[in-house]
Automatic annotation (TrEMBL):
UniProt keywords, alphabetically: Membrane, Transmembrane, Transmembrane helix
GO CC annotation terms, alphabetical: membrane
Record protein name field: TMEM205-like domain-containing protein
Superkingdom of the source species: Eukaryota
Membrane spanning stretches: 12-32, 52-71, 83-100, 141-159
UniProt main location, coarse: membrane
Transmembrane helix among keywords: yes
Subcellular locations according to the entry: Membrane
PANTHER family documented for this protein: LATE EMBRYOGENESIS ABUNDANT PLANTS LEA-RELATED, LD23009P
InterPro entries found in the cross-reference section: TMEM205-like (IPR025423), Xanthocillin_Biosynth-Assoc (IPR053009)
Domain TMEM205-like: 13-111
Species in which this protein is naturally found: Canariomyces notabilis
A Pfam family the protein falls into: DUF4149
Length: 171
């Protein structure tokens, strides 16, 4: 099969872009920004980056799955370890994209409302603010954990993919 007729180069491109983006955003970009930016700037940046990141992650998982060699999804479903990795990564990415990231953003924005911030005494957070903080923490923790599960699934798939590579050292 010619280079342009094979799904393999596209699959490797989409998969490597996905894994690289996941690892870079999760372990490099977020840590650097957290350490280098004031809290308000970090929060503003993150609320702009993460919806884009989760859309890109979901799209790249899909594109990587549909370009699975040799015949796309038909070939993928025949490889149990591979389709399970994609199912796990796809499910966690979709949950982050449509459930937990929007819930995190919504509660973060609600927490910013100064009228909710303190109770009548003014010295401690109001019960409404305490509830919002707990809700935000739960949703934010879910985005983090689901993202790590997606990365783990794609690393597992990458290991399986690497084991199938046939590299001839004589060439």
């Amino acid at each position: 099969m010619s280079l342009f007729g094979s799904l393999t180069p596209y699959h490797l491109l989409f998969y490597s872009t996905l894994l690289g983006a996941e690892l870079f955003q999760t372990f490099v970009n977020t840590k650097i920004c957290f350490n280098a930016l004031p809290r308000s700037a970090f929060t503003t940046l993150q609320k702009r980056i993460f919806p884009f990141y989760f859309r890109g992650q979901t799209l790249l998982i899909f594109l990587s799955a549909v370009t699975y060699p040799q015949h796309g999804l038909l070939s993928l479903v025949r490889q149990k370890g591979d389709w399970i990795s994609y199912a796990v990564a796809g499910t966690t990415a979709v949950l982050n994209l449509f459930v937990f990231e929007p819930n995190t953003s919504q509660t973060r924005d609600a927490k910013a409302d100064p009228l909710r911030s303190q109770n009548a005494r003014g010295s401690e957070p109001s019960p409404d603010m305490q509830r919002l903080r707990r809700t935000f923490s739960k949703n934010h923790a879910m985005t983090i954990h689901l993202n790590l599960i997606s990365i783990g699934a794609m690393l597992f798939y990458g290991w399986r993919l690497a084991l199938r590579l046939n590299i001839d050292p004589a060439q």
